[in-house]
Each structure stands twice: as structure tokens, then as C-alpha cells.
Amino acid sequence: MHPAIQGLLTIAFGVGGCVGYFYFSNLVLDRVIFPARGAHIARNIRRANMIRPWLFLLPALLALGLYLAYPVVETLRLSVTERVPGGGSEFVGLANYQQMLAEAKFWEALQNNFLWLLVVPAASTAFGLLAAQLTDRLAWGNIAKSLIFMPMAISFVGAAVIWKLVYDARPEGTDQIGVLNAIYIYFGGDAPMQWLTIPFWNNFFLMMVLIWIQTGFAMVILSAALRGIPEETVEAAIVDGAGPFQIFFKIKVPQIMDTIVVVWTTITIVVLKVFDIVFAMTNGQWETQVLANYMYDKLFRANDWGVGSASAMIIMLLVLPILVWNVYNARREMR
Amino acid sequence: MANLKLTNVAKTYGGGVEVLKDINLDIKQGELIVFVGPSGCGKSTLLRMIAGLERISGGTLEIDDAVMNDIPPAQRGIAMVFQSYALYPHMTVRDNMAFALKIAKKSKDEIDAAIDRAAKILQLEPYLDRLPKALSGGQRQRVAIGRSIVRDPKVYLFDEPLSNLDAALRVATRIEIAQLKEAMPDSTMIYVTHDQVEAMTLASRIVVLANKGIAQVGTPLELYERPENEFVAQFIGSPAMNLIAGTVIATGQHTTVRLSSGEEVVAEIPTTEADQGLAVNVGVRPEDLVEEGSGGALIDSRVDIVEALGEVTVLYIAAGEGKDPLIAKLPGIHKGLRGTSVRLYADPAKLHLFHNGQSLLYR
User: Fold this and answer.
1) How sure is the predictor about B1, in pLDDT bands with cuts at 50, 70 and 90?
2) Which range, of A13-22, A95-104, A252-261, averages the lowest pLDDT?
3) Inter-chain contact A240–B147, Cβ cutoff 8 Å?
4) Same-domain check for residues B201 and B256
5) CATH assignment of the domain containing B25
6) Do B86 and A230 touch (CB under 8 A)?
7) Which of A216, A257, A254 is nearest to A237 (CA)?
8) Interface test with B, best of A229, A235, A239 (most B CBs within 10 A)
9) Touching check for A74 and chain B: CB below 8 Å?
């Protein structure tokens, strides 16, 4: 069968299946289980309405349970077991965690993750806010915004490839195709640099990629928030004698603080899970390891379930409080 | 505490759209000037030009003899109260009032003193540490006024400050603004509204804006008693003044007009020989019509609708095919008038005469 027809059929079955599920499950509920007739009509309608929300939630609950809740439990189990030669596994307590904590590469990954955590959300939010404010009143602001937003549409791996070209180094004396080296040589640098192999600073070259992607996201959300600020409060501030910077920092930013926090925490969660960029650009070499790549390394290259799962648990523990805070803030903002 | 002078002020928007032209106005210290006019007449635009929030496209604005056209708002010595209050939602009442003073780098003692004074005048003392969202509409409006008072400006600008309040609160706040003016007799205030009751009760002088310009400037009673043109005559007073077409048939100290109905009425308005045969509109306010009178009847027609309000009875009287009904406001309760024919008269001193929209009083 032609793949396109296959795809269309899948869509038809999927959508049809959903519609069919909701239609027939409701039909069964209303006609068979609690029919809206007979001696207990009022009670039946009330009960049917109590059950109906669960009917609608059931598919989502099942899918989330299978693909989210179960893996968490299974990962937790794997993180305290070890493979036995010849098949099977046995309980080893916290041995995997101890082994992991003793590895220098783990601490490097943890340290780098914190560095990412400090820099990327702050830089993305700041650049996004700046772009939102600067493009707000421009005639060509929407074009500028589209350009800044575009990286959001690129996959992390694609973005990594693009930036690998930016950081590319060709032998000395030949034309530099990497923009950064081209600029470096133009301004009098003596030899092209292998940017991604310079420890510590190479972390920032990697972060740049994520900042480039996330700035567009921050800009779109913050731009909408800035538009929501009542114009009269800005005019009142002008009459009160505030300059452009005072209006921005004392009138506008405080009014969109809730949105800034949501944007910040959302990007923070993305950062904690960062994997593709590091995997595609350095694979954790030259002291650029991060937790997610470390986990991948253990799970699929070293085939060490135990330590891999343990590091997955660490990532989850780090994400959890920020996620809770993010959801709390997003809900508060919606009110 | 200042004099304002507007000379040939005009406002044109980018595409050549003219909103205001040839605005000439002298405002003396201590006056409360009210700009009124229908929606879109440019009254708010004029206020915003005085504030400096809109550019002045032509003419000059002077405050105390200094040209202000290109001076930023904060240095014009003005303070503005906005329709939506425009309080800073993230600041307490105290910080809202202190904001301008902090920017002006006033000392802490000065700021505290100014806030205490304003809070006392406006009875805001218990609310100084609250956020705006914890205040009622009336309290928010008082904070907005307080934010102006602390700056001790030369000119206060009010942009429809009461239109976001409910009816009862509007009356109360209107009286508060009148008292505020009383307490600060030297301050100059400019007040924009579309509500003529606000205009009549608050203003020392009213500026009626229409057709891109000033239709008339005068005290509230001048506008009511001696409107310069049909627009002002119909804009001030509610229900609006009735206009009845007629022809001048006798001139002199008093003028006799034959109405289209054939009735002849006398108005205490002087005319000259040259006015003989002039086509005029006789203007009479609904509240000036009475059931008994001498001379010809102004109205002799069928009553279509009766609104009995208790204190007054409002009659809507057929004026002929395709014309707006004539309106009469009779004191007290009148029953059984609907569908009947009424003859209504007016005191010759209460009549107005207009030719081509202009009052014959002003020639």
C-alpha cells in the first residue's frame, strides 16, 4: 500500500475511533446502564452525569498511565536493580546511585546542567523581552518577529547542525566557512579556533544554540503580555515624568512579571532536559557533558540500565519542583 | 495655578485627516473649564494635546505665557486623571502617588508630606498600603485624583473621569470634585465629558466642541439661555430644544413669526426691516411649553407617546411626516393625553430664533 494512503487510513481510523468511542460509550451509558426513563429517572440522569466526565477522561488517563506513569515506576525499579550474567536481574539497593556519584563525568554533567540552568532561561527571557519591546511599535516589527521566531520551527538537531557550521574551522590559510572563525580572522585572529574544544567556554557555545531557539518563544509570549498592558498606565507614567527606561522597568515589566516567571520556568524545564544539542555537537566531550546525554550514554552505549535509570531519576527530581511551580504560576496567571 | 492660551490650535492625523482646527481659547487661573461635545468631536484629543500626549499639528499652546508645543508632558506643569484611572496595578496607593515625586527626586520627607496632605483631602488614609485591585471604583478614582494633587500642578486635566463609575457613585464623585475645586480655588482645571449634567454642574465655563471647532464658549447658564447656534441649543438641555420652521412677518423690538401651521407667535428678539420674510427656526425648550397662553400656539398637534415620570410628564407630539417628534415637558401628572390633540404656548421671552443655524441674538 502507498504510504500516503496508509497515513490517511491511520488518520481516518484514529479520528473515527475517537468519535466512535465517545458516541457509543455515551450511548451505552444513557440507554443501557442508567436509562433516562422508568421509576428512577432522576437518579439515573444524575448518576450518568457523574460518570460522564470519567468516560471522557478514560482514554487520556490510559495513555498517560501507559506512557508516563508506568515508565516512571519502571525506571525507579531499574535504578535499584542490576543485570545478572546469563539473564534476569537482582535488587542492589542504592549501589547504582553510589557508583554514579563516584563518577567524575556525572559531576561534570550536573555542574554543566546548573550552568545551563543559570544562563539559558535568563538569556532567552531577557532577549525575548528586549525583542518584544523593540519590535512592538515598528512598522516592520512583525517581519522581525517572524525571523526571530523561526528557529522555534527547527528541530534541536537541525539547529545543532546549523551552529556546528557557524563554529566550523578550516585549516589555516584556507577560506573559513564558519562564520565565527571568519569574523575572528577578519578582526586579526592569527589561526582558526576549534571553538567547541575549548573547555568551559564551549558550554556557552552550545547554550547559544538553545538561546537562539528559545528567544523566539519568549518573545511571542512576552509580546502578547506587553500588548495587554493598559496604554493609559504608560501615558500616566509619561505625564508623571518617567523616561523610556523607567517606563519599561518600573511600569511595564512589573505588570507582566507573572508571564515572565512562566516563560522563565518553562524554558528552565526545557534546559534540564537538554540532550539533542549536546549529543549532536560534542557528545559530551571536552567537558560539555549534561545529565540527559550522560543518561543516554549509560543506557544505550554502556548498556548499563541501572546507572542510566538512576541518572534519569535525578533529572526527574530536578525538574519536578520547577514543573510544579510553573503549573502553579500558569494557573494563577489564567485567573 | 496658571493661565492657558490656545491660538489657532489644529490637529491633523497622518493621512491628512483633520480633527480640530482654529481652536482659540483663553483660560484664566482658577477656572474649571469643561469640554463637551458629541463622540468623536475631538474633545479628548484637545485635552491630550494640552497634556502633551498628542502632538499639536498647528497653532500654539501657551501656559503662563510660555509656548508648550514641544515641551514634554512632565515639564508642562500639568497632571492628568484618566478615564480608566490608569493606576499602576503593581504599586500600593502610596507608591502610586509617590511615583512622580520619586522620579522628580524629591526628598522622602517632602514626598510623605505631599501624600499625607492628598490622602487627607481625599479621605484615603486607611487605604494607603493597599493595591488598586483591593479598592472600589470610587476609591480608585480618588487615588487617581490624589496622584495629581501630590504633584501640585499648574493645570489639572480630567479625561471623562466619571464615565467608568455607576450612576450613584458618579453623582457622589461629581460632588467630591466640586468640593475639591472649592478647596483649591486657585487651581486651573480642564475637564472633558460627554455628560451635560457634569458640564452644567461643575463648569465655570463650558466649551462646546462640534464640527472640528468650538461651537460656543460660555457659562453654563449662558449656553442654556442664549445659545449661539442650533447645535448648542439642541446639545445643552435634555430633552433637546424643539425647532419649528417659520417666516418673519413683523420686525422691530419684538419679532413676529408665522409658523408653517399658520399660527403667529411673538419672540422678544429684536430684528430689522431687512429681516422681513426671513426663513427662521423658532426654538423652544420642552420645559418652556405651557398649556395656557396668549397669542398663537407653537404646537397644535396629536400626542403620540406619554412618559409619566411623576414630577414631570413628557409628551412626544407628532410634527408631521418624516420629522422628529416635538417634545414638551409639563410639570406634574397629566392623565388621558395620549392620542388627543394639544395646544401649547410659550412665553415670548423664552423663544429663540435661528437663521441658517445661527441665533439672531448674535449678529
Assistant:
1) low
2) A95-104
3) yes
4) no
5) 3.40.50.300
6) yes
7) A254
8) A239
9) no
- Specify which residues B312 forms β-bridges with: B331
Domain boundary residue among B215, B234, B253? B234
Contact list, B151 vs chain A (CB under 8 Å): 240
CB contact under 8 A, A254 and B90: yes
Alpha carbon of A180: minimum distance to chain B alpha carbons (Å)? 43
B131 with B19, same domain?
A: yes
For chain A, give the number of residues. 335
Alpha carbons A222 and A320: distance in angstroms, whole number: 24
- Give the pairing type, strands B312-317 and B299-308: antiparallel
A246: chain B residues, CB-CB within 8 Å:
103
Summarize the confidence of residues B167-196 as an average pLDDT: 87
User: Going edge to edge, which strands form the sheet with B358-359?
Assistant: B264-267, B255-259, B242-250, B279-284, B352-355, B358-359
Residues, chain B: 363
A264 contacts A121 by C-beta, under 8 angstroms: yes
Is residue B307 located within the same domain as residue B355?
Answer: yes
Could you give the domains of chain A?
3-79 (no CATH), 97-334 (1.10.3720.10)
Please tell me the pTM assigned to this model: 0.76
Nearest to A260 by CA among A121, A136, A151, A138: A121
pLDDT the model gives residue A48: 85
Residues of A in contact with B105 (CB under 8 A): none
For residues B151 and B279, state if they share a domain.
no
Count of domains forming chain B: 2
CB contact under 8 A, A239 and B104: no
**AA letter at A35:** P
Shared-domain flag, residues B273 and B216: no
The whole-chain average pLDDT of chain B stands at 88
What cell was used for B107?
526628598
Q: Which of B50, B82, B85 is the best mutation test for A, with the most CBs of A within 10 A?
A: B82
For B105-161, the pLDDT digits (tens) are: 888 998 998 898 888 888 888 888 999 988 888 888 889 988 988 888 889 999 988
| Cβ atoms B142, B126 nearer than 8 A | no
How many interchain CB pairs under 8 A, A with B? 62
For residue B192, pLDDT beyond 90: yes
Same domain, B229 and B248: no
**In A, which residues are within 8 Å of B52 by CB distance?**
238-239
Chain B residues closer than 8 Å to A238 by CB: 52-53, 72-74
Q: Are residues B245 and B335 in the same domain?
A: yes
Average pLDDT over residues A25-49: 84
For residue B31, give the DSSP letter: -
- For residue B358, what is its C-alpha cell? 445661527
Residues B192 and B322 in one domain: no
- B103·A255 Cβ contact <8 A: no
β-strands B188-192, B32-36 pairing: parallel
Q: Which of B83, B90, B100 sits opposite A240 (nearest CB)?
A: B100
- Which of B234, B251, B277 delimits the end of a domain? B234
ipTM above 0.95, yes or no: no
Q: Which of B79, B85, B104 is the closest to A239 by Cβ? A: B79
Supply the CATH number for residue B288's domain: 2.40.50.140
How far is the alpha carbon of B116 from chain A, nearest alpha carbon, in Å?
19
Partner-chain residue, chosen from B88, B103, B151, that has the shortest CB–CB distance to A233 = B88
A239/B74 CB distance under 8 A: yes
The whole domain housing B113 covers: 4-234
